[in-house]
């Protein structure tokens, strides 16, 4: 028993000596590997694949940065760990990016599923909710952040076995977890759907295109005549967008992003993206979801217009045009594409009573006498983007058939408000008599019929039908217009291109719009996702709420 106790320290010392010898051998082998030699005597291969050599590349890059910047090793290791967590190509452009292998023979391209790809929604990571460096998985369509070793996209590629991703900002495609960039022309159609592009020649010929496009599900659609998804009670936005898409100069302006690159407003850029998606001929589906545009509207309007709350398209149109003008105008000139299309000018004559007090003095005492008033007239020039027309009140009594008579009124009768002679009485902000006269006509004339009146208890809707011409509205026959200059021609003839209609009770109904397709001169009825061709005669039978007329060339 004693002999065993004495011999145990000797055995322990022997094991320690053997471990030290193994460590020495392992250290020598490691040094040979670092010099590029085989520990068994041969030479190692010069290059290894991405997974085997990733740690060596990181270490070499870290050492190079330490020599270049003279930083401490501990700080450099900490920075390398941060680079692994998130791809910092966007956050830290001053750092030298890691070289990425470019390959054309990716074996996973057949796993790309175009049916699930939808780039209409906000580009946020589905896990971290960050909008920095977001990649879309081309297999399941979900968004993930980064492509480093500890990023959400890298983890998703390992857990789900989805390997093809595209950067939503740079449009570069990558294979994860291998990490190489994919250069394959088969992905070009995805890039065009992610960011539609138009050349100047395509923009000029877009109204001549009569060809239908085919979506992935086999359905056909007309570029520019696609339905808009109603997120939740956002039909007032949809009819406004569909109407503005018929304004040729406005549409052509927003189809080319270089025209508004100077603007920093997200609302302007989201409207441009939505315009390009509506007119794109290579979409994967026959409808567009204006989700990103609605988010920009909510933010820019301080939630005056928001998803889930029904609003008035006339108020939204007025707010949108004024806001986009303020974001697009330059400092030197107070003009924009909005004013070039829609701005006209009115001469306003305002008559109101100016009260004054007559004072009489008798025997040195002041007494208040009779109050008198004078009629004061003020004339001013006021620019306008749209004109509001007043409808005659509906009848109060029913006819012999116990049905309310729906009155009709010609458009020319209610246009007399702007002949310079008809008096309109207003009570706000003060009681006055107003006369209006158009002194400059815009290229695109927006009219809205004031169907809704609010009182202290509820909102009333006027059901009066307005009879209007679809083509050749000649304004000079009904309202006086200023004489043009010698070199100019009086352009007072207009054609209808969009007609917004309200159906149902006030506050509960829905909106739809009739629009004209110029390439065929055909009319279409659009209500959210539903797009159907209709006859021009049906356009005139509706309860018009807002109309857009185009001036003849």
TrEMBL record:
<keyword id="KW-0747">Spliceosome</keyword>
<dbReference type="GO" id="GO:0005681">
    <property type="term" value="C:spliceosomal complex"/>
</dbReference>
<keyword id="KW-0863">Zinc-finger</keyword>
<feature type="compositionally biased region" description="Acidic residues">
    <location>
        <begin position="17"/>
        <end position="26"/>
    </location>
</feature>
<feature type="compositionally biased region" description="Basic and acidic residues">
    <location>
        <begin position="88"/>
        <end position="97"/>
    </location>
</feature>
<dbReference type="InterPro" id="IPR013083">
    <property type="entry name" value="Znf_RING/FYVE/PHD"/>
</dbReference>
<dbReference type="InterPro" id="IPR001394">
    <property type="entry name" value="Peptidase_C19_UCH"/>
</dbReference>
<dbReference type="InterPro" id="IPR028889">
    <property type="entry name" value="USP"/>
</dbReference>
<dbReference type="InterPro" id="IPR038765">
    <property type="entry name" value="Papain-like_cys_pep_sf"/>
</dbReference>
<keyword id="KW-0508">mRNA splicing</keyword>
<dbReference type="GO" id="GO:0016579">
    <property type="term" value="P:protein deubiquitination"/>
</dbReference>
<keyword id="KW-0539">Nucleus</keyword>
<dbReference type="Pfam" id="PF02148">
    <property type="entry name" value="zf-UBP"/>
</dbReference>
<dbReference type="Pfam" id="PF00443">
    <property type="entry name" value="UCH"/>
</dbReference>
<feature type="compositionally biased region" description="Acidic residues">
    <location>
        <begin position="50"/>
        <end position="59"/>
    </location>
</feature>
<feature type="compositionally biased region" description="Acidic residues">
    <location>
        <begin position="74"/>
        <end position="87"/>
    </location>
</feature>
<dbReference type="GO" id="GO:0000245">
    <property type="term" value="P:spliceosomal complex assembly"/>
</dbReference>
<feature type="compositionally biased region" description="Basic and acidic residues">
    <location>
        <begin position="29"/>
        <end position="38"/>
    </location>
</feature>
<keyword id="KW-0507">mRNA processing</keyword>
<dbReference type="InterPro" id="IPR001607">
    <property type="entry name" value="Znf_UBP"/>
</dbReference>
<feature type="region of interest" description="Disordered">
    <location>
        <begin position="1"/>
        <end position="97"/>
    </location>
</feature>
<feature type="domain" description="UBP-type">
    <location>
        <begin position="104"/>
        <end position="201"/>
    </location>
</feature>
<keyword id="KW-0862">Zinc</keyword>
<dbReference type="InterPro" id="IPR050185">
    <property type="entry name" value="Ub_carboxyl-term_hydrolase"/>
</dbReference>
<dbReference type="InterPro" id="IPR033809">
    <property type="entry name" value="USP39"/>
</dbReference>
<feature type="domain" description="USP">
    <location>
        <begin position="226"/>
        <end position="552"/>
    </location>
</feature>
<protein>
    <recommendedName>
        <fullName>USP domain-containing protein</fullName>
    </recommendedName>
</protein>
<comment type="similarity">
    <text>Belongs to the peptidase C19 family.</text>
</comment>
<dbReference type="GO" id="GO:0008270">
    <property type="term" value="F:zinc ion binding"/>
</dbReference>
<keyword id="KW-0479">Metal-binding</keyword>
<dbReference type="GO" id="GO:0004843">
    <property type="term" value="F:cysteine-type deubiquitinase activity"/>
</dbReference>
């Amino acid at each position: 028993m004693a002999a065993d106790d004495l011999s145990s320290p000797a055995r322990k010392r022997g094991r320690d000596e053997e471990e030290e010898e193994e460590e020495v051998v392992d250290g020598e082998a490691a040094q040979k590997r670092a010099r590029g030699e085989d520990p068994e005597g041969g030479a190692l291969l010069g290059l290894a694949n991405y997974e085997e050599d990733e740690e060596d590349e990181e270490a070499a890059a870290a050492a190079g940065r330490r020599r270049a910047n003279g930083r401490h090793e501990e700080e450099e290791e900490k920075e390398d760990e941060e680079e692994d967590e998130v791809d910092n190509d966007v956050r830290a452009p001053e750092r030298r990016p890691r070289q990425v292998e470019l390959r054309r023979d990716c074996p996973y391209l057949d796993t790309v599923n175009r049916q699930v790809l939808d780039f209409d929604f906000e580009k946020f990571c589905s896990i971290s909710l960050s909008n920095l460096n977001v990649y879309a998985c081309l297999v399941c369509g979900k968004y993930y952040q980064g492509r480093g070793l500890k990023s959400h996209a890298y983890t998703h590629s390992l857990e789900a076995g989805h390997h093809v991703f595209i950067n939503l900002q740079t449009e570069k495609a990558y294979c994860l977890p291998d990490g190489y960039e994919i250069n394959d022309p088969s992905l070009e159609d995805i890039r065009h759907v992610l960011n539609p592009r138009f050349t100047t020649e395509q923009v000029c010929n877009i109204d001549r295109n009569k060809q239908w496009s085919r979506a992935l599900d086999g359905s056909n659609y007309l570029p520019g005549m696609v339905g808009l998804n109603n997120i939740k009670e956002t039909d007032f936005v949809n009819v406004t967008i569909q109407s503005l898409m018929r304004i040729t100069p406005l549409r052509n302006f927003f189809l080319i992003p270089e025209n508004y690159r100077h603007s920093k407003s997200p609302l302007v850029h989201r409207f441009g993206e939505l315009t390009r998606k509506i007119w794109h001929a290579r979409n994967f589906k026959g409808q567009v979801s204006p989700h990103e545009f609605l988010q920009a509207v909510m933010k820019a309007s301080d939630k005056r217009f928001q998803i889930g709350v029904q609003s008035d398209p006339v108020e939204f149109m007025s707010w949108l045009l004024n806001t986009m003008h303020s974001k697009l105008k330059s400092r030197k000139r107070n003009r924009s594409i909005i004013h070039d299309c829609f701005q006209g000018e009115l001469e306003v004559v305002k008559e109101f009573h100016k009260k004054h007090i007559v004072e009489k003095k008798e025997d040195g005492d002041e007494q208040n006498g009779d109050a008198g008033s004078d009629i004061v007239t003020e004339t001013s020039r006021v620019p306008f983007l749209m004109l509001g027309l007043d409808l005659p009140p509906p009848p109060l009594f029913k006819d012999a058939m116990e049905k309310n008579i729906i009155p009709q009124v010609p458009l020319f009768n209610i246009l007399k408000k702007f002949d310079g002679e008809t008096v309109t009485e207003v009570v706000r902000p003060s009681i006055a008599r107003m006369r209006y006269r158009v002194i400059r006509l815009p290229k695109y004339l927006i009219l809205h019929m004031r169907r809704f009146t609010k009182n202290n208890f509820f909102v009333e809707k006027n059901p009066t039908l307005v009879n209007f011409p679809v083509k050749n509205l000649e304004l000079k026959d009904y309202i006086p217009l200023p004489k043009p200059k010698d070199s100019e021609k009086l352009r007072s003839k207009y054609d209808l291109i969009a007609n917004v209609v309200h159906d149902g009770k006030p506050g509960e109904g829905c909106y739809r719009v009739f629009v004209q397709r110029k390439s065929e001169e055909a009319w279409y009825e659009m209500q959210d996702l539903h797009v159907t061709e209709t006859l021009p005669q049906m356009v005139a039978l509706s309860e018009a709420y807002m109309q857009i007329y185009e001036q003849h060339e």
